Amino acid sequence: MHRRNLFANFASDNPSAPKSTFKPHPASLGASHFTNALLRTHENKEVKFYDDLIKGRQVIINTMYANCKGACPLITSKLIKVHNALKDRMGKDLFIYSITLKPEQDDPAAIKMFAEMHGAANMPGWLFLTGDPYDIETIRFRLFRWEHIKFDLDLDLHAGMLRIINDATNCWTNVSPDASMFTILEHISWADPPKSLEQRMEENKAIQERINKEVKQYGYRRTT
Amino acid sequence: MKRRTFFFSMISLCLAAPLAAFGQKGCEPDVEPHRHFLVLAGRSGMFYDKSGPAFPMLIKLDGGRTQIDAIGIYFIQGNRLFGPVPEEVYQEFMKEPRAASDVMLRLEITSAQYERCLKVLRTWERRAREGALLYPNVFMDNILLVKQVTESLDQCGEKINLYKLDWGFEDKISDDNPPPRIPFLFFKEMRRLNETLHVRDEKFQEYRSAAAKP
Fold it and tell me: Does residue A138 belong to the interface with chain B, where contact is any CB pair within 8 Å?
């Protein structure tokens, strides 16, 4: 056996080597909460909601519908800005899912047209989703409910929320899509995977150097 | 009859039939071959929070056969459960209550109303079976169920007086009471609003006997 093959075999057989990059947190609510409903993407591919889209991933989820004349186009254009700001991570460890609120009307072709209209159809890590109305309603209530029947039956209120989940750290948060880009990115970062000690020390060192420089230059700390 | 008059009367006859059908907006005729009923049944004071079983029940008298579907919150051996109500539980609520702690409203509905209500019940039955309830608190699910069932009655402008259970400012039942008590109080209010439409036991028995006759 060649040395190269021996090394490759050793690496692939090593049980400690990570087989999948997406591992859920032990306390993740799992498929029983998120459901493993079969949904269809704007590319007409069938996906299982938890196993294929949520499990072990950090995701941003919003709701929309194709013939929406109100907030959906504005929210989608805000998400394009978010995607551009975080494009190095998109499709690798961060994903955006836009789920239709009107699955009776929105087949994969309709949501594809909506995605294309906003220039979001081919953005890495961004899927537009439709499915059976029963499953979509379950997912909508599981992710966006307000524990208030009037609000929960109002589709517009559910459209006015970005749900951010990191299943690998079991972290949930949400932010209004009307918030500033800074606020939205800050909320997304709250669900980021924890950084290594070396990385945090590196960042702290850079902040300290900046503070020292300010104190030397102005006599007091300007950075908050 | 002149030819022109004959021509116009034929035209108006041809137009009248589809227009009359269109005017009904797909609503059902009054005369029904079978009888259908919606029963809203509840009891209070069974549990520590003064709540009790509360569920909608659909009855179809179809010749000698009686089909009953009931789903909601019920009690078995002190346990509160949400799902299809077993026969021994719903049989207790087939007759008008004598105690003030019980409430029952029995409305005769059309086959179209019955089908709409049954669709709602079947969806919730599926949700209960598959563990796909919408709220972690089953009382909220029960409120949503009774709201959807009763609101499905009024889609064709029927004459049922509906209390709007929408958690809005004018909905005093939801505003002033905890979720476990809401369906019972809602049924009480619905009974008050629809007293004249309530089908009494004697009348219901008449219908049952008549339906059973070959």
Answer: yes
Query: What pLDDT digit, counting tens, does each position of B115-161 carry?
Result: 999 999 999 999 999 999 999 999 999 999 999 999 999 877 768 89
Chain A partners within 8 Å of B174 (Cβ): 149
Do A224 and A175 share a structural domain? no
Q: Does B147 lie at the interface with A, CB-CB under 8 angstroms?
A: yes
Cross-chain residue pair B132–A138, CB shorter than 8 Å: yes
What's chain A's length in residues? 224
Tell me: pLDDT of A133 over 90.
Answer: yes
Q: A15 in a domain, yes or no?
A: no
Phi/psi zone of residue A56: left (φ > 0), alpha (ψ -120 to 50 degrees), beta? Answer: left
If asked whether residues A176 and A71 sit together in one domain, one would say: yes
* Chain B residue nearest residue A134, CA to CA: B123
Report CB contact under 8 Å: B140, A138.
no
> By C-alpha distance, which of A40, A16, A28 is closest to A115?
A40
Residue A192's nearest CA partner among A109, A91, A94, A47 is A94
Strand, coil or helix: what is B51? Answer: coil
Q: Rounded mean pLDDT of chain A?
A: 89
Residues of chain B with C-beta less than 8 angstroms from the C-beta of A147: 135, 137, 140
A44 with A58, same domain?
yes
Q: Does B41 touch chain A (CB under 8 A)?
A: no
The verdict on A138 and A224 lying in the same domain is: no
CB burial class (10 A; 0-12, 13-18, 19+) of residue B33?
exposed
AA identity, residue A85: A
Q: What is the pTM of this model?
A: 0.81
Residue that the structure tokens 């499990």 belong to = A55
Q: Which residue segment(s) compose the domain that A221 sits in?
A: 196-224
Contact call for B134 and A145, based on CB within 8 A: yes
Over residues A177-189, mean pLDDT: 94
B140 near A CB under 8 A: yes
Task: Inform me whether the pLDDT recorded for B17 exceeds 60.
Answer: no
